[in-house]
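are you around this afternoon, could really use another pair of eyes. what follows is a protein written twice so to speak, once as letters and once as structure tokens for the fold. i want to understand how the tokens follow from the sequence so walk me through it. anything you notice is useful, everything is just below.
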Amino acid sequence: MNLLVDFLQNYLDSNGLFTSVEYLNDRKILFASTSCGKEQKIIFNSHLDVVPAAPELFLLCEEGDKIYGRGTNDCLGNSALLANMLITLKDEPGIGVIFSTDEETGGATTAHMVDHGYKGHMVMVMDCGGYSVCFGQKGILTLKLTATGKAAHGSEPWNGDNAIEKVIDVYPRLKSLFKPTGPDDMWHTTCSINVFNAGTVFNRIPDIAEVVLDIRYTEEDPPEKLMKDIAELTGFKVEVLKESPVVFCDSKHELVTGFVSHMSSFLKREIPEVRLNGATDARHFVKLSVPVIMLGIPGHGAHADDEYALIEPIAEFEEMLVSYCRTKL
């Protein structure tokens, strides 16, 4: 990852941009801008890291109007677009890009940059593909629940208290805390059990069972209340593994309406407002109290073997962003 940062920094340096590198432990994070300083009028964000894949998926393959390969859609296509956008705008002060390097594993590098003073009057996170603008994403609450019982020999269950059975017994009631959702009604808090650890051998009743809940919550369900309700209902020990805030941007903010209007006019299409069930690094910019929106190039198959980006819209999106920056700065 550090080699990629070095490559991109050298490329942007050689094309007349201001660049700086911050470190989080041994990991590099690149900031590039059209004018000197951590504060710019508009901050863009994209990530350079990708999820693991077979070696052949790192070989770009162009087929028709698509370019296939790991990261083409999530999120190297957006990063390449932003690099070229900066070069085109190098004589227009006020534009900066944070190229983060660990979004796929939590985004601590973006949080580090925000905590160290990198900010703008508006933030655009390029990690949400398609002809739309995303104004919100659910918060993340990852909880580990620990049920305790009493160990005993598997042949004498009456002498034990099975921790696995405690989890099984409480699960239907746990699910009842969350409204059923579907593809046509998604903006509700959801919960899924994605990790279950219990037992060591087949003939011993386990005295400990641990489950990890992946909760994606909306502004209607404060995480403190969710944790309280779950602890009271289950009687289990509740431990917070991760918590990230809901991202909610006022779609009526003048900077946002101005951008959406420009995007719609330039691309000659309606731009729908959407919200994400998943998460991007947008959550790390919430503390800046400025408009934060998410968008990105059209494509398909993030994290999948058939991941691709549509070729023509990459240039189209770049031209749209360049035009917007020149109009508004």
In short: The domain at 1-137+246-327 is CATH 3.40.630.10 (Aminopeptidase). The chain has a mean pLDDT of 95. The chain is about 30% helix and 35% strand.
